[in-house]
Amino acid sequence: MTIVLVTHLMDDVANFADTVYVMEKGRLVKSGKPRQVFQAVAFMESIQLGVPKITKFAQELKNRGLTLPYLPITIEEFKELLHG
């Protein structure tokens, strides 16, 4: 079964999507698994879509010196990263 979800709510995308297709001006500009797509924080912000709130928060922590193997896209992933 396939469900197509069209939204600008990136937290919903992180929680519900298996695959993400990012479009800008009618063109496909990025696709992949949510975690893969949302690692490109600067790109997603440059096209005014952004990333999930927890991903942005983790990016800010990383910018301040916190070492993370990847940017989490859900709160559950963030908890796992912090607690191993």
UniProtKB/TrEMBL annotation:
- Output the superkingdom of the source species: Bacteria
Q: Which UniProt keyword terms apply here?
A: ATP-binding, Nucleotide-binding
Q: Which protein are we looking at?
A: Cobalt ABC transporter, ATP-binding protein
Lineage from the top down? Bacteria, Bacillati, Bacillota, Bacilli, Lactobacillales
> Quick check: keyword Nucleotide-binding in the entry?
yes
The record, for InterPro entries, names: P-loop_NTPase
* Single GO MF annotation: ATP binding
